[in-house]
Amino acid sequence: MYRIAICDDDIAYTEYLEKKIKEVLGKSERSSICKYYSGEEFIGDLELEFDLVFLDMQMGEIDGITAAIKFRKRNQDAVLVFCTGIQLPQPEFFDVQPFRYLMKNYTENKMDEELKNIINKMIENKKEVYIVVRNDGRMDKIAIDNITYISNIKRGCCIHMFSKKDNQCYEFASNKKLIDTYEELKNQSFEYAHNSYIVNFKAIIGIKNDVITLEDLTTLNISRSKRKIFHSRFADYLGGKYKRNR
């Protein structure tokens, strides 16, 4: 089941958006849609694990961006969509990783098109991608999104993971060489930051002076030889992540 939140102080638009979402989802996809008419109401339900959130950018005391910042502190995985009538995106809005901006004056056809893209992204997010790790006769299936980085070790590589559910770090040893693991994962947002490790772009929360900070607060250096390609690929990753139809 998909859990969806709509937070907008415009009751008519909230009802309209709920109707359109149900039309796009159809009867084949089970969903639960929670409606909130203020940022305060929405903030009060942050313990719910939403898969998709629609936030009005202009509300009362707690507007969309304030609600989004609080929401992202608890949920980094949900698809976030800002709804707006007139306000254009500001640079700071990208800190909360919005997937789309829905203009309230969209035509029916444009709204259908945008909602299909949004719903497809939500469904895609729920389908975890795994790799199979073998070591000394043991086989483990690991969710790629939980991997922060992979480092070189004497007989293969070490897969470093961070679980957001229990806020714990884990490590798995693999018999596969780092270079072979990279070939398997390079199309899944992984890149060499150093000859001895590859980093998952999805796990990066900051880069400053060629020092990467990961979501588990591990810090890694970007080597001089890898700097150009790493920054180029990370920029492409961010560009694709925040790309939106105009």
From TrEMBL:
Look up keyword Zinc and say if it applies. Answer: no
SMART domains recorded for this chain?
Answer: LytTR, REC
Q: What does this protein do?
A: May play the central regulatory role in sporulation. It may be an element of the effector pathway responsible for the activation of sporulation genes in response to nutritional stress. Spo0A may act in concert with spo0H (a sigma factor) to control the expression of some genes that are critical to the sporulation process.
Highest taxon above the source species: Bacteria
* PANTHER family in the record: STAGE 0 SPORULATION PROTEIN A HOMOLOG (PTHR37299:SF1), TRANSCRIPTIONAL REGULATOR-RELATED (PTHR37299)
Q: Which Gene3D superfamilies match?
A: 3.40.50.2300, LytTr DNA-binding domain
- Originating species: Mediterraneibacter faecis
The 4-aspartylphosphate modification is found at 56
Matches recorded under InterPro entries: CheY-like_superfamily, LytR-like, LytTR_DNA-bd_dom, Sig_transdc_resp-reg_receiver
| Protein name listed in UniProt | Stage 0 sporulation protein A homolog
One function term, GO molecular function aspect = phosphorelay response regulator activity
